[in-house]
């Protein structure tokens, strides 16, 4: 069951049947789709949105998730946040690797508010609190907005990589923060 996550301005929750129109509105836009996948294409029909919703709802894992990101003040959906195994490059159909990726797709009406960074920060906290040791993110080399999100999250740029998705992507990595040892912070007497 996808865990509900709250931040200062957002609630990340499981997808509901009533979200289908939002999914269609989001993924039928070229500005959203242009850097997603090896052959970017917009969603062309509402029935595709129904299928996508079902795929999102089928994610059932204690740690991984595909969340609907909603605005706390009025419940409005603003985007998608993903934490899931990333497909390794190889023969089609691609198989999930052991590495976990974080990803974000937001509606352009809500860009420029820090929502993607706020939601992703909370999902990384959840990932590390749940025992993950590291999380990766990949972006199209031209997707500067997404690379900026990675940097805001403190993810380290690893350079161009062909390790995932049968594509050359900019790879970012973040490791679980080291636990602070309170004793180490004590001043020596
Ligand atoms: C990638 C994407 C999520 C980035 O969205 P975004 O709104 O720019 O990202 P953030 O949530 O980090 O917001 C940062 C922006 O909000 C501004 N901002 C405003 N209030 C803010 C706040 N309280 N906190 C942080 N940033 C704030 C920042 O200044 C920054 O604006 P700038 O880019 O003009 O400098 C968005 O472009 C998108 O969904 N693209 C389509 C899908 C896509 O490509 N996904 C990635 C696939 S790899």
Description:
The chain is of the alpha+beta class and 189 residues long. The chain has a domain of 126 residues: 3-Layer(aba) Sandwich (Aminopeptidase), CATH 3.40.630.30. The chain is globular, with a radius of gyration of 17 Å. The chain has six helices and eight strands; from the N terminus they run ββαααβββαβαββα. Helix 1 crosses helix 3. The model has no long low-confidence stretch (mean pLDDT 95). The chain binds coenzyme A (COA). The site of coenzyme A has 21 residues, from strand 5, helix 4 and helix 5.
Helix and strand arrangement:
Layout: E1 5-6, E2 10-13, H1 20-27, H2 30-33, H3 46-58, E3 65-71, E4 77-87, E5 96-106, H4 115-129, E6 134-139, H5 144-152, E7 156-161, E8 169-175, H6 182-185
Helix pairs in contact: 1-3
Bound molecules: coenzyme A.
Q: What's the CATH H-level homologous superfamily of the domain at 5-14 and 63-178?
A: Gcn5-related N-acetyltransferase (GNAT)
Compute the average pLDDT: 95
Q: Which CATH architecture of the domain at 5-14 and 63-178 would you pick?
A: 3-Layer(aba) Sandwich
What name is given to the CATH topology of the domain at 5-14 and 63-178?
A: Aminopeptidase
List bound small molecules. coenzyme A
Characterize the biggest β-sheet.
Answer: 5 strands, antiparallel
Which regions are unreliable across 5 or more consecutive residues at pLDDT < 50?
A: none
Could you tell me the number of beta strands?
A: 8
State Rg: 17 Å
Class per helix and strand makeup: alpha+beta
Q: What sort of overall outline do the alpha carbons produce when their principal axes are compared? A: globular
What proportion strand? 25-35%
Read across the widest sheet, the strand sequence of neighbours is: 1-2-3-4-5
- Give the oligomeric state: single chain
Distance between the termini: 49 Å
What's the CATH first level of the domain at 5-14 and 63-178? Alpha Beta
Fraction of helical residues: 25-40%
- The tally of helices reads 6
């Amino acid at each position: 069951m996808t865990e509900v996550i709250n931040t200062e301005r957002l609630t990340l929750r499981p997808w509901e049947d009533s979200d289908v129109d939002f999914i269609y509105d989001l993924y039928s836009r070229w500005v959203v789709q242009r850097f997603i996948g090896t052959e970017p294409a917009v969603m062309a029909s509402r029935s595709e949105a129904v299928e996508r919703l079902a795929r999102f709802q089928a994610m059932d894992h204690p740690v991984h998730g595909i969340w609907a990101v909603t605005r706390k003040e009025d419940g409005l959906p603003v985007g998608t946040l993903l934490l899931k195994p990333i497909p390794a490059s190889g023969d089609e159909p691609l198989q999930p690797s052991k590495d976990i990726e974080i990803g974000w797709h937001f509606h352009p009406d809500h860009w420029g508010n820090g929502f993607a960074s706020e939601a992703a920060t909370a999902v990384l906290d959840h990932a590390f609190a749940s025992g993950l040791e590291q999380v990766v993110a990949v972006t199209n080399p031209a997707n500067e907005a997404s690379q900026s999100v990675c940097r805001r999250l403190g993810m380290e740029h690893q350079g161009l990589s062909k390790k995932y998705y049968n594509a050359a992507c900019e790879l970012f990595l973040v490791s679980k923060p080291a636990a602070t040892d309170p004793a180490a912070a004590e001043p020596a007497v």
